[in-house]
Amino acid sequence: MVLGSGPVSAGGGTKAILAALAANAGIALAKFVGFAITGASSMLAEAVHSVADTSNQGLLLLGQRTSKRRATKEHPFGFGRDRYFYSFIVALMLFTLGSAFAIYEGIHKLQHPEPLTTPIVAVIILVVAIGLEGYSFRTAIVESRKIKGDVSWWGFIRQSRTPELPVVLLEDAGALLGLVFALFGVGLSVLTGDPYWDAIGTLMIGALLGVIAIILIIEMKSLLIGEGATPPELDRISAAIVGGRVQRLIHIRTQYLGPDELLVAAKIALEPGLPLTDVAAEIDAAEARIREAVKAAGLIYLEPDLDRTPSTA
Prior knowledge:
By secondary structure, the protein is mostly helical. The chain contains 9 helices and 3 strands. It has helices at about 10-40, 40-65, 80-110, 120-150, 155-160, 165-190, 195-225, 230-240, 275-295, and strands at about 245-260, 260-270, 295-305. Strands 1-2-3 form a 3-stranded mixed β-sheet. α3 (about 80-110) packs antiparallel against α7, α4 (about 120-150) runs antiparallel to α6 (about 165-190) and α8 runs antiparallel to α9 (about 275-295).
């Protein structure tokens, strides 16, 4: 699996976030107007969903900004994980404002069904919204492909250390499917004259958002706790360490301090009897090789030691 050879610029993620922000803000307003005219619960659920998504994109932008703060004595490794924190908040908002509200509204409409008025307005708004969400989703795909490499899309969502693009990808995919579900509910309500279908569409939207939110919560929690280098990155780092008078890698630990900065700590075996100046030179050379192999390796701590591997002779 290859996710890309170096750290990811925030520019691609920012472009995808801004595209989603603009699309969701306009769509949310249109959906609220549609709900006011038609009374369709699926339209209300989708409107709240779009409001949540718009707020989420604002939080992602905030996380990108606050993560750039300089390191302090209290936070000597900087604030790179702010991007993980705000992405985790986004997942919680998607679950509470999106999923929980849609399920509540769907159950309410099942218990108290109401006929739709002027449903053609809802259909037009939903079709236009699908087009706008499609543009946002396409932007997220284009930006994600720049760093995805040859891994699958599911693998990218699971293993990417850059939180914004997987979040926007899942949000946009959920928004598109949610619009289809809303169109399904409104359409069947019109064709059958039964408003229960509108409530069913609303429940489908709630279930969809719940699944997406749970996936994001699990992934962002993992990043917040701290994830190490990906297997391909770890292989490249391990190979880069050995060279010159570095005989072998004894053990290594890695952790992402933020999407663009990887901490590398390792104990390395050097040739015995090296002068202190040569030890320092070998460590410097190994650090340079690591940074060349993995651009995200910003903090590197190498501890020299002797090779105490038992002889097999």
